[in-house]
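Problem 12. The chain below contains 460 residues. Write out its predicted structure in token notation.
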Amino acid sequence: MGFSHQTSLRRLVALVAISLLTPALLASTIAAAQDSVTTEVDASAFGPAVDPQSGAALEAALDRVGLGDTWRESAGLGEVTRQLFVEYAGSRSQAAAADLATVLTDIKRTENLQTAIIGEVRKSTALLASLTEIEDRLERRIGQDQASHDTTLELIQSVAIDMFSNAGSRSTEAIGINNSALLQTRRSDELTASVLETLIDQRDRLIVDLEGLRTRLPKFRDSRISTAASHRELIRAARDLPTRLAELETVAKELIPSAADAFRSAEIADESGLSLRALDAYFNAEEWMDQNQPECGVTWQTIAAIGLVESRHGTHGGNRLMPDGRTERQIVGAVLDGTTEDGFGNTVGLVTDTDGGVYDGDPLHDRAVGPMQFIPQTWQQWSVDADDDGRRDPNDMDDASVATARLICANGQVRTTGAWDDAIYTYNQSRSYVAEVRDASHHIDDSVSAATPVDPDVSP
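Solution.
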């Protein structure tokens, strides 16, 4: 189309509505308008770009175009998780989110452009009407002044002819009459001469006025023609923009699935490995516990810290969480044969097979499985189907996060420092493990706090 946000109002004239202006003021207004015809306006003047790293900005922009519900359904994340600032892993994910953000920015700026153009159409309509009226007034004034000039010229000719043709006869007649009559004749001649002089002055002024009016008229006419052309262009642009907006909204809808997948897989800023999908599982686990074991007091930060220490939130060894919460590849720990050392320098205990190799694939010894590294026997004791998908799966971050919370709360509440330390020690009997989980909990809490928008109602 001929007019869009991409051309940045290349041909948009900044017109000013006027009513009854003096010619001088009108001329300066027209000159200013004409000077703005070729002005380039930066696209940023129509609103900031949507930040693809801000969940709050993306969702607000999608809500504004009626696609918020589609986004929420595609993302499959909780409200708090969707608001955070993230970092995308990989160029493909970055591009998917950036493409959607660019289209949303285009929509917003096109809407702002549409508003601006509608405003300018109103202004140009008023200016065009004023220019037309003034041009008509000038033409009428020229006609009136021309008629006055012609009439004045006829009077001048008539008076001059009468004055000079009768001058001789009046002088002859005046010889035979008294001085009083002669004086009256002279006064009559003087009055006639004065009238003639006045008429000549009036004619000269009319000539000057006509010259000025005839000089101004083409300028006003050119301004009206130029304004009319700009007005037609604005009208065309106003008609084209709704179609452009509809096209952009269609593109945005088509981009949502890939952008939602990229956003869901993105990591919390400053917390490598903690994807929104994993964080959502931790949030949901805390909520599950609040509803089913509120007396415990376990927090999502504790669950997330264990997830970080055990498997880097399901990304150990280049793994990743799938949209359904399962790891792309199964995470299996060391063989619990009583000889292997764990990551904290402790020799693992001997645990013979308890699941027939169903979970860990080892029919002789147990091995920790999944992002939370559950031993099969422990998993069978504490597992639940947290996401209601019909199975309890240690490789599913949703199920594993709730199972972790239940295990932590096995001996009661964890609201005090001592109780918390004991609960984490039960999970892995190593004091260095407890210290690492504690540090991880504080670090994750700081990272998520930093990724939380100051104003959750922020809009682009």
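Discussion. Residues 179-265 form the longest helix (87 residues). Students who got a different answer should revisit the alignment rule from Section 12.3.
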